[in-house]
Every structure is written in C-alpha cells, then in structure tokens.
Write a structure and sequence with these properties.
By secondary structure, this protein is mostly beta strands. The protein is 5% helix and 55% strand.
Length: 442
Amino acid sequence: MSLTTPTAPVQRLPRPAAAALSALTLVAAAAALTACGGGDGAYTVGGSVSGLTASGLVLSNGSETVSVAANATSFAFTTTVSGSYTVSISSQPVGQTCSLSNASGTASSNITNVVATCRNYLALSANQSSANITSFAVGTTGALTSSATTSTGSLQAAGLAITSDGKYAYASYRENGTVTAYSVSSTGVLTSVGTAAAVADSRGLAVSPGNSYVYVTNYSDKSVSQFSIGSNGALTALGTAKVGTGSTPMAVVVTPNGSYAYVSNQGDNTVSQFSVGSGGALTALSTATVSTGSGTQPQALAVSPDSKYLYVTLKGTGKVAQYTIGSTGALTASSPASVSAGTAPSAIALTPAGNCAYVANTSDATLSQYIITSGLLTPLASATIGASANVSAVAVSPDGAHVYATNGGDGTITSYTVGSACALTFLGTVTTGATPAAIVVR
C-alpha cells in the first residue's frame, strides 16, 4: 500500500487585493527613492549655520535666495537641483562676517553638508616696527578689543588685505618681495598657509571681489604680481606672473564688478589701467596710463561701490584726484579734477553705500571727511577730524557704521562712529603694535 502526500491547493489573491499589494510596492519604492533625493534627479540643497547672532544673512544658489534668521542653526533652499550647485553669500549679517564651506559640487543625493560659519567683525593691524599683526574683536558699539597677535618674524608688512568672507588675510613684505597667506580664526588668530614670491619691494595688495585672485605691487620693479587663491587660501602665481606698471607703483585696486584694476604710480604721477580677464590676468588698456595732472605722488586708491568712479590720494599736493570710469575701464578726470585734503594724504576709504569718503592725512594727523554726490567729493563743513601722529591708514567697517585709523607715530588705532551725514564722532583709542602701516576690518 502506497502513501501519497497531499498537495496544498494554490492560493490566489482576488484581483482587488493584488492591486493593493502592487500599490504598496510602488509606495515603498518611491519612499526609498525620496530618501536618496528623488528618482527624477532633483535634489534639495541646505546645511547648517553656526555663530549667527544677527539678522541680514542672505544665501543664494542659482537664482534662488534664502534669508537666514538670527540664531538660526540650519537653512534650506526650496528649489531642487539636478546637477551642479554653488551656494554663495549675497548679503552679510549686520556686525558679522560669515563664510561657507562645502558650498559647491554636483548633487547625487540631497545636499545637507553646506556649512555657514559666522563671527563678529575683526580688525587686523599690520605693525612694521614690532614686526607683527594685531587682531581686534569689534564690539557692537564699534569699540576694539585686542584678541591675538601674530609675529611676522624679521619682516615688516607693508600691505594688508582680507577676503570678503574674512577667511583669509594676506600681508606683503618689502624686504624679500613675498606675500604670506593666513587663515583667520573666529577670534583673529592668524595661521600661515603659505608664502608666495612676488618680485621686489612688495607694497599694495588687493583681493578680487570674488575672492579668487590677489594682486600686489612691486615698487622697485614697475610691476604688479598676480596670483590665484587656492581652496585653502594659499597663492599660486598666474601663468603670466606679473604685468608692467608705471614708475614706483604704490597701491592696486579692483573694481567691485571685477572688470578693471588700477595702480597708482608715485614715480611718474600716473595711474595704470587694466582689464581683468576671466582667469584673473591683467591686460593693460590701449591707453596704459593716465596722468594725475598737476597732482603729485599718487598713493592710495578707492573705487565707488557701483564701479563708476575712482579716487586717488595725491600725497605731494594735498589733494584727492577723482575720475569717472568709462564702459571700457578708461579713466576720465572729473570736473573738478581734484578736491583739497590735508597735508600728505596717504590713505582713503569709502563707506559701503558709497556716500562718504575718509582720507588719512599723515603730516597733520587728521582725517578729511567728504560726502559723495554723483561721484564727486565735497568736504564737510567740518572738513577734518583729529587723529594722531603720522596717521597712516584708514578703514570702514563692512556695515559702514565705524571708521578706524592707524597712527604710526604712537602705535595706536583711533575709532569713530559715522553720522547720518558722514560726519565722524570720536569713539576711542586703543594700542596696537609699533608703527602700524595698514588696517583691514571684516
């Protein structure tokens, strides 16, 4: 007798139940795709925020902007991306400077690792005789408090510049014709990330508006060295490492729109004019220089925020030359071509709004103060305000609320508040290193 194992009957789902199971499978698959950023190649972009205590931070990615509230710890764009993304800072918060990391790339999933790091303003003072750079925290009232000092060894910094996001600072040295790049911590501690060779007797420094390039004048070589800025702030000479200028170039400036650059040439009383190429290289305009007219010893330069006007201090004649910038970058003397300053004007700074200008007059220990209308400087009724001996440099805070002047004669920095009509009010004085020659605030 044989035994046969019975076979269980095949179970079949009713059609409605099968359809429901299929739908559940699709939902699960969609959820898995969403977790990876979506099945159509569209991904969100966002990240974290630290140190933000003020309002006004605006970030952009493509055509979208997002305002980040004070004390926020994260941000996100609503528009998705399907390829590359680049997050940038469109507007800085009041009284603070923010920088970004992990800000660009190609999305293959939702982007959550962009980091915005914010800090209060810092001021850096390059001090020649004490061979150091002093860092100061800028308080909410504009007052300075010393926070760090960085030795420059046996070298004396002649020029100082800082990127617009405050991440990196650059100092030029006359003795050996070099430029040192520093990373800047939130408390102002500077750490060298490398030194690049310029040519000789390096003086003025400028960082391009996009923080991609650095330019430095070579006083005894009649040239400007040009560098690209690496991801860690270090400098690399461009393929054409330098371009010619006039005699004894002092300062260099790049227009805020990044299209043109100008160099003051003290030895032959001219201003060199250049276009800026897509790779940062300078090319002399067809008319390579313009004269400063009857003004002598052109020193410092400043460009209006709209890139339409250039101002040049004339140390030898106690004036400030003023020019309009044409569509090709060519300079044309304004009318009037110059305005009076104090004795030996050596530095100039404009407010971010472009409505006020301040000039450091080295030999009479004052700052000249001007209101700007249609690109023309007009001295205020109180044309000057006192500084201290051998005032050597001047800077305006990024929010336009305060002005700082270094005094080479007594190793101090004088602080001022900016009034609604550009008039300065004395705020206080702090000690820095010996013979300060340059100052930046960011």
